[in-house]
Design goal:
Largest sheet of chain A: 11 strands, mixed
Shape of chain A: globular
Radius of gyration of chain B: 30 Å
Oligomer: heterodimer
Radius of gyration of chain A: 21 Å
Number of domains of chain B: 2
CATH superfamily of chain A: Amidase signature (AS) domain
Strand content of chain B: 15-25%
Distance between the termini of chain A: 9 Å
Number of domains of chain A: 1
Number of helices of chain A: 15
Structural class of chain A: alpha/beta
Shape of chain B: elongated
CATH class of chain A: Alpha Beta
Largest sheet of chain B: 9 strands, mixed
Chain lengths: ~500, ~475
């Protein structure tokens, strides 16, 4: 194990600045960590040569005094971001061997600021999943195990869909990672692996070059070990992009500057509707603990109501599949990716898509096709859109009474690979606390806040007003300090 | 109302047209790729057009402006709020597996077109809507024995779909509709209207019914790419449908194709086989919101359109309805005419433009834009007629020479010595010679055979090689014969 991989992103950047070590050294340590962590299957493609080149170039820039804000920082890139000249699979067989000729806007911005790419992180196929089990390239294994001796052999999921990103950051393979979040795909794996995950406001980061799952919900964000690190990464990732019509043209603040530690007088909304039946009592207790921490720091907890919360999950599972059924039509074997021939055009489509898509993706395409069909559109898709408007309105009203909302991130701690596989709906319930903010387009931040009785990480979620990531970061910082979550997973790259 | 006579009585034909008009723009509707016709296959394709992973559409402002301009030209309602939807279906030349179109909330609502019918009457046809959508690519089935090749140059090119009300009753009206629509689009510069290049094509909806009865079941014949074919397709469908109905059958609601070789429509797919397009708002594009001020600014730049121009020509130049209609059929002709008519006798100008110039262009197979005789030069020719330098008859010869040489009328008249003889002495001399050479005819004339007057005129003109001023010849001959 190398000391360098234990650093936070902020500390590593300071060390590089001071000349304590070089980007090449920092990158080499992380390359070793990625290699040592291969049993976790966190990466689909390793890009060590490229990382070394980037690190060398970074050191040159630092000498010249032209280093960017992330210069020399080794990161993992979720394999949903198209990377020029590097295979991009979306975790799917259908894109095996697909090498984009273009760079996604978000990764281009990270590289502009000097980031180093260690590899492409594993994920649920097309970002559809909450466990990272649906990847064609095999499941990602969480670096966490339970504390009982029997738990040591039980392989846990890292959450999903950004499971590879989460595992890589938790196991100290990378200083940070990009994730994408459609219904909780950054926040839930962050909670499961004891790291910080920030889903920005819809429109904050460009979606250009990110393989689409559900266009009206997809949003890129950072996954890091501290709130400050998330703030640093977001500053590089965010910003208007004329190539994405849904990105929003407003200035990108210095998010890290929001970490004042001062939340006195801030009103923290506690939504009654998130006290759902079946929630793990440990989760409920942690939530109460979070409320107490924020109150102790001078914030004022406020009871709020988000009356349409219970409709969020069914609404999400209509809207997201509907969009995905259309977005995934382009994977037809005609222009790129895998093609399985057939005797007719229709047969080629059927062969290609049957071979190329896994079961969960097929399920969602079928659901989406169904809810958009003539005769069902009004009852499902149109109704879901109306409910979505109500959910957004719930939040708008709530934010008249409070400045930020505190909830648990997920209804349970991580579960084992193989569990919850029989019934997709059980799996979908993982997103129950994260989906409402997604539907409303609001920013959400998951902060590691404690351990379950089985010694598994649990996260708390903060939801903010549109484009008020700064308040999330400020409150998140306070929560982080209060929780003092410094527990490391049993598996640390290079230590076993 | 014109009905079609069937074996069992009269039938009324109901026709509606959906025209796909390619928007004149440098770039595609949602990408920066170029739109030049006839380029190498797949040379005008961006990653967006080819629907690569992670690519996103961005609306081309110029295309929106052209749609608004067209809407204004069709006196239609401009919807300040409109939505782009996805129309989902699988086909090899549709890269994304969906076409971005507008379904429930198009950019342009109700409008109208006034048809100019051959008998000089007019008829108003309603426009239901105009919406913007992407064109698909082209599948090439003849390049390989078992494979289909795909050319995506057209994929993503902006089209305006202009939907008429079912207001037309004859194939001629449908043709008049297309001609008028094309003229308006060309005046506006929003579509070049070249049907042979595919930049304007029509889906033809036809049904028949007993006069005044309930609407019959319609068929839709897709992608007909000439006005003549549209007329033929309608005539074929009307005959076919009446035959089916009179034979006790029923018309199936279906999509048909026009066979340009056999001149028949053929069934493509029935209603049951129709796609379920699963339209829904494209989440990659926010609803389109226009500013009324922006629309007003476009309206202020609209050119004078055919109907207004025609009315003005009748009023300002005192032209007949027919002549005005012919001249305004396209903007270039109207401009040409106005340039000729400026400061001249407008009726004489109209006559020369319509009869001589259009006739000549027609023979030469040329466009007014490529006319060998400019408006300025035609005006010069007319000036020579008016100031009696040449006669109208000589002028026609001069005009032919102008077509060939491109020279000005004045130069040709000078060069070829065609100046009209107005010297009464010279004419008198010619008269005397003719009368002296034809003593018998002169005797007959004096005996009362007055139609010989024309014979004498002809002989005199011949003697002067047509250069004598005809009015002067007339006057002097009359005087001499009466003497």
């Amino acid at each position: 194990m190398s000391e360098l991989t234990q650093l936070t992103l902020a500390a590593a950047l300071k060390g590089l600045d001071r000349g304590d070590f070089t980007a090449a050294e920092l990158t080499e340590s992380h390359i070793a960590a990625v290699a040592a962590a291969r049993p976790l299957n966190a990466f689909i493609t390793e890009t060590f040569d490229r990382a070394r080149q980037q690190a060398t170039a970074s050191d040159a820039r630092r000498v010249q005094g032209t280093a960017g804000p992330l210069d020399g920082a080794p990161l993992a890139i979720k394999d949903l971001f198209c990377t020029e000249g590097v295979q991009t699979t979306a975790g799917s067989a259908i894109l095996k061997g697909f090498v984009p000729t273009y760079e996604s806007t978000v990764t281009a911005r990270l590289f502009r600021d000097g980031a180093v790419m260690l590899g492409k992180a594993n994920l649920d196929e097309f970002a559809m999943g909450s466990s990272n089990i649906t990847s064609h390239y095999g499941p990602v294994i969480s670096p966490w195990t339970g504390k009982a001796p029997a738990d040591a052999v039980r392989k846990l999921v890292p959450g999903g869909s950004s499971g590879g990103s989460a595992a890589a950051v938790a196991a100290r393979c990378a200083l940070g990672a990009t994730g994408t979040d459609t219904g909780g795909s950054i926040r839930q794996p962050a909670a499961f692996t004891g790291i910080v995950g920030l889903k920005p406001t819809y429109g904050r980061c460009s979606r250009w070059g990110i393989i689409a799952f559900a266009s009206s919900l997809d949003q890129a964000g950072p996954m890091t070990r501290t709130v400050e690190d998330a703030a640093i990464m977001l500053r590089s990732m965010a910003g208007y992009d004329p190539k994405d019509s849904t990105s929003v043209d407003r200035p990108v603040p210095d998010y890290a500057a929001a970490l004042t530690g001062d939340i006195r007088g801030l009103r923290v909304g506690i939504p009654a509707e998130y006290r759902v039946d079946g929630t793990d009592p440990e989760i409920a207790a942690l939530w109460q603990q979070g409320i107490d921490w924020l109150r102790a720091a001078g914030a004022e907890p406020v009871d709020i109501h988000l009356p349409h919360t219970k409709y969020a999950l069914p609404t999400y599972y209509i809207v997201a599949p509907a969009e995905c059924s259309s977005n995934l039509s382009r994977y037809d074997g005609v222009r790129f990716g895998v093609r399985v021939p057939g005797d007719s055009l229709a047969e080629m489509y059927e062969n290609t898509r049957a071979a190329g898509f896994g079961a969960e993706v097929r399920r969602r395409i079928l659901i989406g096709t169904y809810v958009l069909s003539a005769g069902y559109y009004d009852a499902y898709y149109l109704k879901a859109q109306k409910v979505r408007t109500r959910i957004a309105e719930d939040f708008r009203r709530a934010f008249e009474q409070c400045d930020v909302i505190l909830t648990p991130t997920a209804p349970s701690a991580a579960f084992a690979i193989g569990e919850r596989m029989d019934d997709p709906v059980t799996m979908y319930l993982n997103d129950v606390f994260t989906v409402p903010a997604s539907l409303a387009g609001l920013p959400g931040l998951s902060v590691p806040a404690g351990l379950s009785s089985k010694a598994l990480p649990l996260g708390l979620q903060l939801i903010g007003r549109p484009f008020d990531e700064e308040t999330l970061i400020r409150v998140g910082g306070v929560l982080e300090t209060a929780a003092g979550f410094h527990t490391r997973p049993p598996f640390i790259a290079g230590e076993v | 109302m014109s009905y079609v006579q069937g074996a069992t009585g009269e039938w009324e034909v109901v026709i509606g047209l959906e025209v796909h008009a390619q928007v004149v723009s440098q770039a595609k509707l949602f990408s920066g790729a170029a739109t030049v016709f006839g380029s190498e296959p797949n040379s005008q394709v961006s990653l967006v057009d080819a629907a690569f992973p992670g690519m996103l559409p961005v609306i081309n402002r110029v295309c929106i402006e052209q749609a608004v301009r067209t809407g204004l030209g069709l006196k239609a309602q401009i919807n300040l709020f409109s939505v782009f939807d996805r129309k989902n279906y699988f086909y090899a030349d549709l890269p994304a597996g969906y076409q971005i179109s507008q379904f429930t909330q198009p950019i342009v609502g109700h409008g109208e077109i006034i048809l100019d019918l051959p008998d000089g009457s007019t008829r108003t046809v309603g426009i239901t809507r105009l919406h913007l959508e992407q064109d698909a690519g082209k599948s090439l089935h003849d390049q390989h024995p078992s494979k289909t090749y795909v050319d995506l140059n057209r994929a993503g090119v902006a089209l305006m779909e202009i939907v008429s009300e079912p207001d037309m009753r004859t194939a001629e009206e449908a043709a008049a509709y297309l001609r008028k629509l094309r003229a308006i689009l060309r005046y506006l510069g929003s579509c070049d209207g070249n049907m042979e290049e595919g930049s304007m094509r029509a889906d033809v909806n036809v049904s028949v019914r007993r006069p005044g009865g309930p609407l019959g079941t319609r068929t839709e014949t897709k992608n007909v790419n000439s006005i003549r074919y549209v007329q033929q397709a309608i005539e074929f469908e009307v005959e076919r449908q009446i035959e089916v109905l009179e034979g006790g059958g029923t018309i199936k609601q279906e999509t048909r194709l026009w066979d340009t070789v056999k001149h028949v429509t053929r069934s493509m797919r029935s209603k049951e086989e129709a796609h379920d397009y699963r339209y829904f708002p494209d989440p990659d594009l926010l609803p389109l919101q226009l500013d009324q001020g922006w629309v007003d600014a476009i309206a202020a730049t609209l050119p004078e359109l055919p109907d207004d121009k025609k009315a003005r020509f009748q009023e300002q130049y005192k032209l007949s309805l027919y002549d005005a209609g012919v001249l305004v059929a396209d903007q270039a002709s109207a401009d040409y005419y106005e340039a000729v008519a400026r400061g001249r006798d407008p009726k004489l100008a109209a006559n020369w433009v319509i009869v001589e110039l259009f006739g000549a262009l027609n023979r030469l197979g040329k466009d007014i834009a490529d006319s060998p005789v400019s408006a300025d030069k035609l005006g010069g020719l007319i000036d020579l007629i008016v100031d009696n330098t040449i006669s109208g008859r000589i002028a026609k010869d001069v005009f032919l020479a102008m077509l060939e040489t491109g020279k000005s009328a004045a130069d040709l008249v000078e060069e070829r010595g065609l100046r009209q003889v107005t010297d009464t002495g010279a004419i008198d001399q010619a008269i005397d010679q003719v009368l002296a050479a034809n003593p018998d005819k002169l005797a007959e004339y004096k005996a009362g055979k007055e139609k010989l007057f024309g014979f004498f005129i002809g002989q005199i003109m011949k003697m002067t090689q047509g250069k004598a001023n005809p009015a002067l010849v007339n006057e002097l001959l009359t005087r001499k014969l009466q003497a």
